[in-house]
Amino acid sequence: MNNPTLKEIALQLGISITTVSKALKGYSDVSEKTKKAVVDLAHQLNYSPNSFAVNLRTKESKTIGLIIPTVIHNFFSNVIEGVLEEAEKRDYMVILLQSNEKLELEKKQIDLLLNKRVDGILISLSNETGEFEHLKAILSHNTPLVLFDKIAKLVNCSKVTINDKKAAYDAVSYLIKKGYKKIAHFRGSYLPQNSIDRFLGYKKALEDHNISYDSSLVFVCDNNMDFEDGYENAKKVVDTHPEIDAIFAVTDLVAIGVIKYLNEVGIAIPKQIAVFGFSNWFMSSVISPKLSTIDQPGFEIGRKSASILFDEITLKKNNSPVVFQSIELETSIIVREST
Amino acid sequence: MNNPTLKEIALQLGISITTVSKALKGYSDVSEKTKKAVVDLAHQLNYSPNSFAVNLRTKESKTIGLIIPTVIHNFFSNVIEGVLEEAEKRDYMVILLQSNEKLELEKKQIDLLLNKRVDGILISLSNETGEFEHLKAILSHNTPLVLFDKIAKLVNCSKVTINDKKAAYDAVSYLIKKGYKKIAHFRGSYLPQNSIDRFLGYKKALEDHNISYDSSLVFVCDNNMDFEDGYENAKKVVDTHPEIDAIFAVTDLVAIGVIKYLNEVGIAIPKQIAVFGFSNWFMSSVISPKLSTIDQPGFEIGRKSASILFDEITLKKNNSPVVFQSIELETSIIVREST
């Protein structure tokens, strides 16, 4: 490249043009000190042929990646909004990808983001994600990573969650205190940590209140924890266990499927069967009967995850050490008409 | 840049290293033919120091921008999902931005996207957008642009919409045929074309069925066409015009606010007042009573807008002429319990 600025930088710093060029491209065989000097001087000299070249120089893309299992879920829409708000403040842009709950797609999307050289990545894992090499690849690539909601405990990075076990424990304890004794649980699929934790919270609440755990009252929602899952499982549980008096569902969407089925067959809520959800989606406050649920602060989860990621990006840029954080945001019980 | 590959390319093509370098950076004083020859040969020689350099060479970012007024709305979540699906097929990435219905933010976000050199931009305009210079800037920048849902008729680009006027006309005509005569309309704010068109469809349906238009039965939803808008306007219309027998709301979210208020004050739906929505959001099928509405195909709108944009990006790359398209997707009436 016949570039007078490169020559000027080389001359002023007393290094070769090749070193300048390598420094601007972030090659690892140039020391961080030299890189910084070159980039600073390049800035002073207004060396900016175009934005891609800026990327080459500063190694910053001012872009982060956000991988979400299902965009359409109200909870994740709230997360996205929180992330966008934090990014907006910093003039950062967000590349949004949807894994569709598929591990293969999640892997591919991480590759794309790393090739794109995003400054950091936020992920809520797919339901299929039971191996973590692709996540560790992000870290060995020295790209900041924050996991949220559906996390992997074994991956060494910052995490933002709620205490799913405690929240579920609180919900089921509340039901027991209200006098419900035969409580079914419509759980999420087997891999996601939050499904496991909500199930464990349900189980522990029963044990702590001397109600014996009955595995035949637990039904798995493996159709994306969807409305249909709630509807179908409600049918099953009413057929096989007419004696149940409450259902604790893994998400509001599942609970709304339950309510729809019970309404259709004329089972009174909460008189005959109480229904408890999880997430506090908007619609849970407008259906009939209004759904009791756990308030899961999606917007706050998005904001907090993004803000930790941006902090880590800044620390990395300044060559400062990063201490990973595990944040648990508070949840609360919202009691409405369904219990 | 002391790069042997650049020398090799220059030698093989019989041009200067400076020209090779300029061609790879896409400078306009190098002919398209030369650029193509240089890029092709660079590919053959596997000249790819990093992805930013690839951008420099091909001038493609493999990224598009998507500006949405409100991510949290179920309709836009569907649109996003449609866009992501089309992008995924082509290994493209989507930068998502939320204008929050603010013109200033929309302008800034377009600047960011243009600086980022995205290959194309998709926008649904904010409710404040009544001037269009920032949109024309995209076109004069020679970046493909597709507007969808909330469009500007005066901007010369491809557009994907539904026929809002016809859909509203169909909804109100249906109400009239069912015997409703005093039909109020809770309209959207004044700027968005789709609010205007839905209002015009309402008015025309009345006229064509010899019902005189009464402006005091039209209420504006200026709080983002939100749930609260429906709730508050329902209160107003019931207080000031107890004689009305139906309400046609600009969105399902507004209609759900209406249903909540009418349920609270014990007005029977549809016996005393029928309610008609617009969009067919998921929750409209699970609230009580279930809402009659217009099915607005968000997912298809997203897919179609993205697919037109990608076609235009390809045409541009091949220096082929682009013919702008205006696509109107079909809507249908969904009759449920509320009418």
From TrEMBL, chains A, B:
Protein name stated in the entry: LacI family transcriptional regulator
Signal peptide start and end residues: none
Source organism (scientific name): Flavobacterium ranwuense
Keyword Transcription: yes
Segments traversing the membrane: none
InterPro entries (UniProt xref): HTH_LacI, Lambda_DNA-bd_dom_sf, Peripla_BP/Lac1_sug-bd_dom, Peripla_BP_I
Gene3D superfamilies xref list: 3.40.50.2300, lambda repressor-like DNA-binding domains (1.10.260.40)
Record keywords, A-Z: DNA-binding, Transcription, Transcription regulation
Domain of life, source organism: Bacteria
Domain HTH lacI-type: 4-58
